[in-house]
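Subject: Sanity check before I submit

Could someone independently write out the structure tokens for this chain? I want to compare against mine line by line before I put it in a report. The sequence has 443 residues.
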Amino acid sequence: MIRTFDYVKVPIVDIVNEILVDASKRGASDIHFDPRENNMIIRIRIDGILMDYAEVPNNIRDYLTTRIKTIAKMNITETRLPQDGAIKGNLQGIDLDLRVSSLPVSNGEKIVIRILDYSMSLAGLEQLDFSEKNYKKLLEMINVPNGIILVTGATGSGKSTTVYSILQYLNKPETNIITVEDPIEMDIEGINQVQANSKIGLDFATALRSILRQDPNIIMIGEIRDPETAKIAVRASITGHLVLSTVHTNNSLNTIERMIDMDVQKYLLASALEGVISQKLARRLCPHCKTKRQTTEYEKTIFKAVLNKEITEIYDNEGCEHCNDGFHGRIAIQEVLRINQKIRDALSDNVSKEELRKLVYSADVTTLLQDGLEKVVSGETTFGEILKLIELDDSENVNDKDSSFDLKQAINMSIQANAAQATANDSNATSLPTKQNNFIETL
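---
Independent answer below. Compare away.
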């Protein structure tokens, strides 16, 4: 446990305030209040990792839960149904913007507080860890007059940060930008933001139909969740609007397939889709204590297969008073696909998934694995962090066989992308050594 509180002498109001402020200062993204049989455990998520924070006795936990629900403007008498709330205010000189969720569980009510941090969104696109190549492609995509751009990734992978940064870049006096969100996570001056509310029939699709009659230049949809929203978004993009949205998929190819699964006609998707930005978050190495070490033979082979580079030294985590186990903050790992004419033709011609994969990963794409390993080489994260992202995020069943398959697929996609880039740079480029291919086959 990190903290202990005197629940007898200190008012519960002050304890709740201290928890919120302290968690924010520590850089936590979430606070979990977990009811157990004999007590309540408070945990905080820092750099994507949950850790124990404090313990609350059973005779106090109901008071603590009631206090949180009260300031979040939730119904304190309703304990049988899930609820959502929000907390906005200034505590001890810190501006807090929190989202609160309650869920009935077997031992009481579980409360989770999401701490919204807009510092990265406000910092600008250039601060979002894009490589020079990916940043250039991103700027090309968002400066087109119409089309649809999709930002994809798992929950908590920084999609909203990327979308809001793009919106702020595009936010100019001569541009009419309208968003439909659920919820509105960040208020942006000069942008018209619509809060979706399914309880009164104002869902994404309904809002979009009205937005199209508001003479918009740019439309942002918080998330494409259903076929109706997907179809309207695509049609809006081919009628002269730039559409931004998010989708829960793992990479560029999966995103195209998901849109097709949502009954978007392929010829429309071929015309509308401008690009896909896929991202994940890895823990960032602490600059104060990271240490260099020699690469293992396994790591050398992976670097050679994926990046076609001989890497003999990389950084690893150590741990000091400035960080958590050698890590401080997180870094985005990105894959940016700019749709070219070959991919558009392939979608229209209804090619197979394997053919589409070859086209996608030969379209001058830096894959997630390539981008991640480049950031390992530059000392921003560790080799283990990158492989963990591939194994855990891309695999439904995390075991040796499934993880190896996912790694093999990721390496194959990276090899295709790497070979395409090499061919573009040198018409006499040769294929990767047979030794690497044999290594991949053994995964």
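---
OP: Matches mine. For the report I'm noting this point. Confidence is low (pLDDT under 50) at residues 394-404, 429-435.
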